[in-house]
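## Example record

The block below lists the input lines for one assembly entry, exactly as stored, with component labels intact.
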Amino acid sequence: MDTQEQELEDIELFQKHVSDRFTELSSPPEDDALLSVSWLHSLLDVFLCCEAEFEAILIMDRDPSQLSKPPFDRLIPEFIERAVKALDICNAVANGVDSVRHCQKLSEIVISALDQNPLGDGHAKRAKKALLMLLSAMNLDDKEGTHVKATERSWSFGRRGVNKEQIAGHFRSLSWQVAKNWSSAKQIQSMIYNLVAPRGAEASGLPSPIYTMNVIMIFVMWALVAAIPCQERNGLPTHFPVPKQLNWAHSLIGLQEKIADEWKKKEKKGMSGLLDELQKMEKLAQSLIDFTDSFHFPGDAEKVKEAAANVSELKEIFGRMDQGLTPLQMHIREVFHRIVRSRTEFLDVLEKGSAPVL
Amino acid sequence: MDECQSAIPAHDGDLHVVAAAHHIVKALGTTKNLSDDLRKILIDLDAHLSLITSNIDSKGGKGFVEVEERLKRVERKIVIWESDRIMIWDSGPKEASDYLEAVDEVQTLIDSLRGLSMNENQKQKELLHRASSLLQMAMSRLEEELIHMLVKHKQQSEPTYIPSPSSQRNVVYNESVVSLDNESAKEASSKNSCSDECGEYIVDLVPEHVIPDIKSIAKVMFASDYSQEFCEAFIGARKEALEQHFDILENGKLSIEDVLKMEWCSLSTEMNKWTWSMKIIFGVYLMSEKRLCDQVLGEFGSVNSFCFLEIAKTTILCLLNFGEAIAMGPQEPEKLLRLLDMYETLADLVIDIDALFSEDGGSFVRLEFHKLLEGLADSIKAAFNVFGVAVSSNGSLYPFPGGGVHPLSKYVMNYISMFPEYCSTLNLLLEDQHSDVASLVSEPQCGPTASLSTSCPMACHLRSITSSLESNLHKKSKLYKDEALQHIFLMNNLHYMVQKVKGSELRPFFGDEWIRKHNAKFQQHEMNYERVTWSSVVLLLKDDNPGSSSLSKSAFKEKCKGFSVAFEEVYKNQTSWCIPDPQLREDLRISTSLKVVHAYRTFLGRNPAHVDDKCIKHTVEDVEKLLLDLFEGSPRSLRNSRRMMKT
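Predicted structure tokens for the full assembly:
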């Protein structure tokens, strides 16, 4: 089998693998709901696997000068540019995970407060304070300089006046800024820009896996931004220009549409991340805050029971976050470093392949 | 629990014993065959036990009353502050310690009330409830006090010794610097003057006297299981403080994309700022913050390192990000000095980083900064290579006018003269490439002049760079059509190189052997120039017939004319040539003068008969004077000179 045929086979195999992996992601087991912490782990794994295969096809045993000729002299630099944008998104998201960890910490207080028998007014007050902070942390507009949009019920803190701003300041400094005026939404937008599926002869050659990898990279970054609150997500694009007839893309497109639907629904209500655990936590926090608001010792037995059930669910979510969030940050860092390496590899190839400079 | 006195005298155990005894008595009382005596004893015992029980109850009742009293008292102490606008810790140490005592008391009461089994005692439940509500109120208050304390005292502790970033020398080295003389080039050195003095400084981020107060609040909150609230407040306040310090250092928040696209001038500034910020943040602020955390949270185990990490994270990730962006970037030679600064700073700090983040939770910090250090090392090696390649491949289309010192020579020599400052780092980094380079540098340093400094990796690499420069200069010299100019050009440039080496930190690394060799080289070119230019001219004045007394008039005329023409030709051409170095210019003039003037004088002297002839265009003095015009760099024609001489 000559190299041309081998190459076509490799490309086909690569795209089959891509299709399989995304199909798996589309039907996750019970515990790994779409956009949950463990699903995100799986997503990142898929990225790393695809990227490794992609690099192997493009670079291994290949004469570098081949990649310096058209259309690769345009396609490869474009890919590298997108990769750099992806790096900034990785950083933004990894730091967004910190704000989720903050929510986790606050939920821990709620759990400590309410996991008491018998439940007293003091416990309820304690929980309520933490719940208010939790809800405002989750609904914090990730724009710079916006102040707390919290449901400001009897904010018991405001006595000495000085503390509201301090707490708000607390939140502000929690959000890491990639750069002034940087926007994750715009970043994704610019990654999508100029993304054109190869046509004709190119569709069956090397340009095809390059396009595939571009799409995968954009999708992964997009999903991360949708799930994890990070800088300036307003205006996140919800549509990808991926032609439906591409075989390998079906599952990916399906996933993308599902997530995009969720996004559109939530966008109107104010933006916590679509992270499954975060969504569930928000619901629980809402009902618990209603409970603590209306609680007077010894409290309505039914309501207390309901609250206890909520708390126990909250405990479960806390557990999943506790297990999975820090590893998620590490995983994102792994992806970050892989993209850096990959970029260096491609730059090397371009350099070797181009005519020597006099 | 050890210190707490049980508020209720009766014990669980006592009640059980009494109850059990009562039960036995009752059971025995139902047996049929009881003697009268036994029955009497049982009745007595029954009455006795009942008395004990009621006693206990009433005592218990009395016990609860006592508890309630204590609770009421402590309630007053705590609630009274709720309506007050004043902060407890601002009011005075007595108020503070009273309050803490009160909170302690509440916790004690709670522990005691909990210590009892939960029978159906309504009073007990009620008291417990009141106490835990009171506790929550107190904890909330303590949280406020803590935040207030941290915010108030944070503002007062601006360390004054830290010089402002703008005072740091920040000259950008680029091609424009080639016009600087040695002195200003030295000033342009990017090395931070503070680098040696600025080790670790531990400052009081919070005044000493406040620490015990914070600690006392910590102790109470941790004891009451409100440690999470304490940590939240503490982390929030300290994080904000650290980030304010960081903001003052004016590190532009830059995305990786921004950094990769940035033009050199701004990038150089940012790299400088980074180097400085790293020293300040790690060397001063984080060391001090760690100490503060140790002081406040030292006794609470892993919470200490957790809080420290949370406080520091955002800031250090920002610094890490910039460093990584730099390490990723295109490795251009002009970045070398700044890269070396960054590398050296990080290499110094890495030990501190390892110490600050020694626990598990901080392992990723250590890893990432170690990775960054490696990345910077790779960047430096790559940039160095690119530098070498750039030097050899720097092409010219046209010959450099005037044959003076080429800008490339200036750039290279000025640039590399700053490297010795980074000698130890460069030696470390260039070590593995040493063997390849050493063989390329065909000037084995052996004998008494060879030393560690001339044979170290950096020295070898620098000599290989100057070697490349020489080869390139040779190529450039070929662009001149005039062979004499080729030699002037090479003489000028080689001389410049030698002067630079002699007059800078490069000297020990190039060694005397190299200097001698290169002196010889440019002197060779000097001689070649003279030969090419003047030999033929002087030849014209040669005595064809030694021994014969003098030439015929026509022969003399011919020779004179020939000499004039040749001389004027040289004059016309070579006045526009340049020998920038005054000493060299002087040397060449003297040596030329010796040859030419001497020959001319001899020639004229041999033919005294024709001395007054009009065909002698120039006197010996004329020739001498005219020679002074050579190599001034401004083209002249003889007419000009004549006019000038006449006036």
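Chain A touches chain B through 48 residues (CB under 8 Å). Confidence is low (pLDDT under 50) at residues 144-174 of chain A.
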